[in-house]
Specification:
The complex is a heterotrimer of chains A (444), B (45) and C (179).
Chain A lengths: L30 E2 L2 E4 L6 E4 L7 E3 L5 E4 L7 E4 L15 E4 L2 E13 L5 E9 L3 E8 L2 E8 L4 E2 L4 E4 L2 E20 L8 E9 L2 E7 L4 E9 L1 H8 L22 H25 L3 E11 L6 E3 L3 E3 L3 E8 L5 E11 L5 E15 L2 E7 L1 E9 L2 E11 L3 E10 L5 H29 L11
Antiparallel strand pairs in A: 2-3, 4-5, 4-14, 5-6, 7-8, 8-9, 8-14, 9-10, 10-11, 11-17, 12-13, 13-14, 14-15, 15-16, 16-17, 18-27, 19-26, 20-26, 21-25, 21-27, 22-23, 22-26, 23-24
Helix pairs in contact in A: 2-3
Chain B lengths: L1 H20 L4 H7 L6 H5 L2
Chain C lengths: L2 E2 L4 E3 L18 E4 L2 E13 L2 E10 L4 E7 L2 E7 L17 E4 L2 E20 L8 E8 L4 E7 L4 E8 L2 H4 L6 E2 L3
Antiparallel strand pairs in C: 1-2, 2-9, 3-4, 4-5, 4-9, 5-6, 6-7, 7-12, 8-9, 9-10, 10-11, 11-12
The chains are: A mainly beta (444), B mainly alpha (45), C mainly beta (179).
Chain lengths: 444, 45, 179
């Protein structure tokens, strides 16, 4: 028959919506139902749910893989030898995910190249939407969509598709270990593909390749609760172990945190600067004493001095100790009410020569801050102690000295929170990448 | 989490301003167990 | 059997009993492709070693005719391109090869030896059951789709797009037991 010429303009009605120009009446609605037949191997009943789409189906009784397209239902292979796995979600279960009702029609367990690491995949079917997969690995779930866009390889071990970039996670051989139910290709236990996974949490891009074709799929992380409620699972869900490659990070708000930290660091600097500007230190008293170990007067007193402004009072001790130590213990006496505040202060200094030259340790000066001393008249009562026989020392009392320890402490406290979160994120990401081809490195 | 950090930062800023103003060395309080800018001196006047 | 020459389509009735499937589409269904409305008037069931799919023949209300391919929940609308450009030979293409068609760049996705299982409704050509051909599917950017059909009589090129089911806004669909 000669090729037909290009069709002439049709006399289809221009009106919208399309009204059939020719066909007189709408065809009667026909119903389509699932199909069942007898297994040629064991006679057990085999059911095909996705009629016309599934081309292999496993007999539930004898684990033979049957050609669903073949009217004679030839047996293709054996699905399992000495192995029986009960899928968590039974075949035939229906559940609603992403707004569509799905039926579980197939189940498979696949294993990695080492043979030690396996995971389960549930084939989901809907007559208008086609197929999806539900993947469960180490207790973590993903909702997987077959992709018909070819991902493009990018720089530095990345791949991109549909406007998103994914980082290479691992490449390996993957084999089918166990099958149940039906599939849209002739599946066989032992079928092997090279799989390449790329991640961009919560998504994972998978490229699977064998001799004849390359397929692509995109998985989205699902919480176990989502799967449980979608498919009304009553049995115990497998407990999630470790971090899944596409598991969303709990610690992704870090960039905002950094912004806040920066702002507060600046504020703290400003406050400290203002404090320094407005503090003026004033020496209230300088007194010198001669201490003797066996002296009659065991304690010394400074003359009265006046504190004019509430501030930290700094007591500075100076004593020319050499390879020895000297300590004073004292009371700050409030002359108005007799209240005292105790303090202790010491100096130690050691020096010498050795093979490297001269060395020294410690200092002949020391100081102590008494917090928030209110205005008023005060003096110090002091007592000394040392191993030496005698020591001259001087004590200087200064008001309004700048405090740096507060700033250091508070700045550390401020940084502790983001530092802690950074550390937790590091631990999380290290756990994620520990299962990858890049174990030992960390992601930023 | 961000809100908590905001409150935390404001609290720390106020603490720094307060402690510097009253000459309260916080680390001393941590070791002595006596908290607050030496209550005795401030409130006793 | 109705043969309607003004439309250049022929209703050959059911050439062979088509195997059952779960397709929600049936002859008489209507849908939309962008601004165009269309009606499903015929069907071909195409089979290959690892599966089968439906090619629904559709009439669009701008006067064109085209095909709605339905395979595993994927839907592609395409129109035959006859611009006189030279098409590759039957054995020339391999997976991954590029091809310029309809002003766009495509990459060969797969090559399948197919056979027509049967047909129903109105079709632009005779599609006898058992007709063999080589079908090459190509994908482009942004959901672009193309097909080359190599048979003894001729080579045909179709260019179109993947369309999500919802966008087709199909009415008059088949009822499926349990769905």
């Amino acid at each position: 028959m000669p090729p037909l010429p290009w069709a002439t303009k049709k006399t289809v009605a221009e009106a919208d919506p399309v009204t059939p120009a020719v066909t007189p009446s709408a065809p009667p609605r026909t119903k389509a139902a699932a199909l069942s037949f007898q297994c040629p191997s064991c006679g057990g009943s085999v059911q095909v749910r996705a009629v016309g789409s599934s081309i292999s189906v496993v007999c539930g009784s004898c684990a033979s893989v049957i050609d669903a397209k073949d009217p004679n239902h030839a047996v293709l292979s054996k699905a399992a030898v000495n192995m029986r796995i009960q899928p968590l979600i039974p075949l035939g279960t229906r559940g609603k995910l992403r707004g569509t009702l799905w039926e579980v029609i197939g189940f498979m367990q696949r294993v990695d190249g080492s043979g030690q690491y396996n995971w389960r995949e549930y084939l989901l079917f809907n007559p208008t939407q086609g197929f999806r997969w539900l993947l469960e690995s180490q207790g973590h779930w993903s909702y997987v969509i077959p992709l018909h866009e070819r991902p493009k390889k990018g720089s530095g071990n990345t791949a991109s598709v549909l406007g998103k970039s994914y980082r290479h996670f691992l490449t390996g051989q993957v084999s089918v270990q166990y099958v149940l139910g039906e599939f849209y290709w002739r599946v066989k236990v032992g079928d092997s593909v090279q799989a390449m996974d790329y991640v961009n949490p919560p998504e994972v891009l998978s490229i699977e390749r064998d001799k004849s074709e390359e397929t692509y799929s995109l998985g989205e992380y699902l919480l176990p609760q989502e799967v449980r409620s979608a498919f009304s699972i009553t049995a115990n869900m497998p407990a999630p172990i470790g971090v899944a490659p596409n598991q969303p990070s709990a610690f992704d708000g870090n960039s905002d945190l950094r912004g806040y930290w920066g702002a507060f660091a600046a504020i703290l600097f400003l406050i400290q600067l203002l404090s320094l500007m407005f503090s003026s230190s004033k020496v209230l008293d300088v007194s010198s004493f001669n201490w003797e170990k066996n002296a009659a007067t065991a304690s010394f007193s400074t003359p009265s001095f006046e504190v004019t402004k509430t501030s930290g009072l700094q007591i500075r001790l100076q004593a020319p100790v050499s390879n020895n130590w000297f300590e004073i213990s004292g009371d700050l006496v409030n002359e108005a009410d007799g209240d005292t505040e105790e303090f202790e202060l010491g100096v130690e200094y050691y020096s010498g020569y050795d093979s490297d030259g001269s060395w020294s340790e410690g200092s002949q000066q020391g100081s102590k801050v008494l917090s928030s001393i209110a205005p008023g008249k005060y003096h110090l009562n002091l007592q000394g102690s040392s191993e030496m026989e005698r020591m001259s020392f001087s004590v200087e009392t200064v008001q309004g000295t700048a405090l740096w320890s507060n700033f250091v402490l508070i700045f550390s406290l401020l940084s502790a929170y983001p530092a802690f979160m950074l550390w937790r994120r590091h631990v999380f990401e290290t756990a994620r990448w520990s299962g990858s081809d890049y174990a030992g490195g960390d992601d930023e | 989490m961000k809100k908590a950090f905001l409150v935390y930062g404001i609290a720390l800023s106020l603490l720094l301003a307060y402690s510097n103003h009253y000459g309260w060395k916080i680390t001393d309080s941590m070791s002595s167990g006596k908290w607050g800018p030496h209550g005795k001196s401030i409130y006793h006047k | 059997m109705v043969v309607r020459h003004d439309l250049n389509v022929e209703d050959f009735g059911k050439m062979a009993t088509l195997p059952a499937d779960m397709s929600p589409i049936q002859v008489g269904a209507m849908g939309r492709f962008g601004n165009l409305g269309f009606e499903v008037v015929g069907r071909l069931k195409i089979d290959w070693s690892d599966g089968s799919w439906n090619e629904w023949y559709c009439l669009f209300n701008d006067g064109r005719d085209g095909w709605l391919a339905e395979a595993q929940g994927e839907y592609m609308i395409s129109f035959q391109i006859r611009d006189g450009k030279k098409l590759p030979g039957r054995g020339e293409l391999r997976a991954g090869n590029p091809l310029n068609a309809g002003g766009k760049l495509f990459t060969v996705k797969d090559i399948k030896e197919v056979v027509c299982l049967g047909s129903e409704g109105e079709l632009p050509m005779k599609a006898p059951a058992g007709r063999k051909s080589t079908s090459v599917d190509l994908i482009g950017d942004a959901g672009d789709f193309a097909t080359l059909d190599f048979s003894e009589e001729e080579t045909r090129l179709y260019v179109g797009k993947y369309v999500p089911f919802e966008q087709l806004k199909l009415t008059g669909l088949r009822e499926l037991d349990g769905w």
